[in-house]
Specification:
Elements: E1 12-16, H1 17-29, E2 36-40, H2 42-47, H3 50-59, E3 64-67, H4 70-78, E4 84-87, H5 95-100, E5 104-107, H6 110-122, E6 128-134, H7 148-157, E7 161-168, H8 179-198, E8 205-207, H9 211-216, E9 224-227, E10 249-261, E11 279-284, E12 302-305, E13 308-313, E14 321-324, E15 336-340, H10 346-352, H11 357-362, E16 369-373
Parallel strand pairs: 1-16, 2-3, 2-9, 3-4, 4-5, 5-6, 6-7, 7-8
Antiparallel strand pairs: 1-10, 10-11, 10-15, 11-14, 12-13, 13-14
Function: Catalyzes the interconversion of L-alanine and D-alanine. May also act on other amino acids.
Protein name: Alanine racemase
Keywords: Isomerase, Pyridoxal phosphate
């Protein structure tokens, strides 16, 4: 898409809903007819504006969403997002809000399970949906092998609790060298969910696949999959599927000032930057306070102006970066600059910053302006 930014516009993140639709359609094409998608919209939909993304997913028929914390679910409900919303890390103090906003808690250990059972008993709440997470090897949230007996006892003793789904999380699904461990997670999940199902009135929905898992392990789709980073078109660079996806988020800055610089003249903090020959630099209105990693300076990353890649010169500053525009003769103050997006993949910035695309996408700060492109 053509990007219009008024002169000296603030750094701007654009959410491309057309690309979201494309990516969802692609992943749906990999699923069996009866397998549902739970779309993960935590952390502001991976930086892509959770309310707008949630509404669009509703329009596209996605009825299962996932967030990390209760306040994220409350925001979605306040803005009219419907369907099932699973809250992955609630705390007991959230229980009334969960009920009031029809949010579904993930229960992942005996302590919170017991507190939930006591709460619904005290409030006389029956058949409220909950989700159980099993720790098959991630060693993060989830009931593990030592908890299974106690978990089953509570489930049998609490018929008023509706277990809507049981799930687990894969730790290494993109990495073929770790497939033996991934297979062990599948085996434990099969074993433990079979035990749970034997002690419930009817079989529950099961899900274990994340974005990479959907691509690499279609035989474990079960009833539902959790589509996270892949929905936003990034994070699967090690897999061939990456070529079929489109980035949902792009980030632009604009040129604040252009300067002529002599060869060898120092540029920026600590005099770390310089050009090898006489040329020009552009000062951009974006910096590490806006989510550009400080490690991306000194030539390790290039922004895109039109069709030209322009390396960062010197250190990344809090509010600005300087880039070499010696090969861009026609730019002026106010010209838009692609930090990442369709023509400058976000993983390039992540690599330069010694991090991962997830951190870049979710790191857009409050002062970054946001636009929605249909």
């Amino acid at each position: 898409m053509d990007v219009y930014m008024s002169d000296f516009a603030p750094a701007t993140a654009i959410t491309h809903l057309d690309n979201l639709r494309h990516n969802l359609s692609y992943f749906r094409s990999l699923l069996s007819e009866n397998t549902r998608v739970m779309a993960m919209v935590k952390s502001n939909a991976y930086g892509s504006s959770a309310v707008e993304v949630g509404r669009e997913l509703n329009r596209l028929g996605v009825r299962d969403l996932g967030v990390a914390y209760t306040y994220e679910g409350k925001e979605l409900r306040t803005h009219g997002v419907s369907g099932s919303i699973m809250v992955m890390n609630p705390v007991p103090g959230d229980f009334p809000d969960l009920i009031n906003h029809q949010l579904e808690p993930e229960l992942s250990n005996m302590e919170i399970l017991t507190k939930w059972v006591n709460f619904i008993s005290r409030e006389k709440i029956a058949n409220y949906p909950v989700h159980l997470e099993l720790d098959t090897g991630m060693r993060r949230l989830g009931f593990d092998n030592n908890d299974l007996g106690s978990l089953v006892e509570v489930l049998c003793a609490t018929p008023s609790m509706q277990v809507k789904s049981v799930f687990s999380h894969l730790s290494s699904s993109p990495t073929s060298e770790k497939d033996a461990f991934t297979k062990s997670q599948f085996n434990l999940f099969e074993e433990w969910t079979a035990l749970i199902n034997r002690n419930l009135p009817k079989p529950v929905t099961r899900h274990i696949l994340n974005s990479a898992g959907i691509v690499r392990f279609p035989e474990y789709q079960y009833d539902m999959v959790r589509l996270g980073i892949g929905l936003y078109g990034v994070g699967l660079e090690s897999l061939s599927v990456h070529e079929d996806l489109r980035p949902v988020q792009s980030l632009y800055a604009s040129i604040s000032q252009i300067k002529k610089v002599s060869a060898g003249e120092s540029i920026g903090y600590e005099q770390n930057g310089q050009l090898q020959s006489d040329g020009k630099i552009a000062v951009l209105n974006i910096g590490y306070a806006d989510g550009v990693p400080r490690l991306a300076g000194n030539g390790r990353f290039s922004v895109r102006i039109g069709k030209v890649l322009c390396p960062v010169v010197g250190n990344v500053c809090m509010d600005m970066i300087m880039v070499d525009i010696s090969n861009c003769p026609d730019v002026t103050a106010g010209t838009p600059v692609e930090i990442y997006g369709q023509n400058n993949p976000v993983h390039h910035l992540a690599n330069a910053g010694n991090t991962i695309p997830y951190e870049i996408l979710t790191g857009n700060r409050k002062r970054v302006h946001r636009l929605i492109a249909e």
